[in-house]
Amino acid sequence: MKQDSRLARMIHVLIHMALLGGRETSETIAKMLNTNPVVVRRTMGALKRKGVVGSEGGRGGGWALLRPLGELTVLDVQRALDDGQVLAAGVSEDHPTCPVERAANAALVDAFEKAERTLLQEFAELRLSTIAERAMKDAAGSQRATHLDHQA
């Protein structure tokens, strides 16, 4: 089963945009993600419809953040990309009259629902500014470590 990495990729992009001044072109974002600008425009269009980013055409145009990272949660980005369930694992329906299949499905559905609620709560509490702060600390730590390595 192929994993959907759009959430992680768009969080990456939005944080870079904020750190670099808040505006980027589809071409620049495509290079960052090693993808095609058409894919970027389609995905950023979903974020635009939910008020996360705006766009401006022409020279000096591109995609712009409409909200600061401190106001954006992971859930905001997730919902902009997909309003469906985050955990989309399915159940078996090969033998609907089988009591074992029904019991297994019921147990799995309960577990999926609990996990979904927990995940959505975590996404709602996690702000993109927190992730950006973590990235900046990691970058500062990496630079210090590299500097110390070169002194040895």
Automatic annotation (TrEMBL):
Pfam family, one: Rrf2
InterPro entries per UniProt: Tscrpt_reg_Rrf2, WH-like_DNA-bd_sf, WH_DNA-bd_sf
Keyword field: Plasmid
PROSITE patterns: HTH_RRF2_2 (PS51197)
PANTHER family for this protein: HTH-TYPE TRANSCRIPTIONAL REGULATOR YWGB-RELATED, WINGED HELIX-TURN-HELIX TRANSCRIPTIONAL REGULATOR, RRF2 FAMILY
Protein name as annotated: Rrf2 family transcriptional regulator
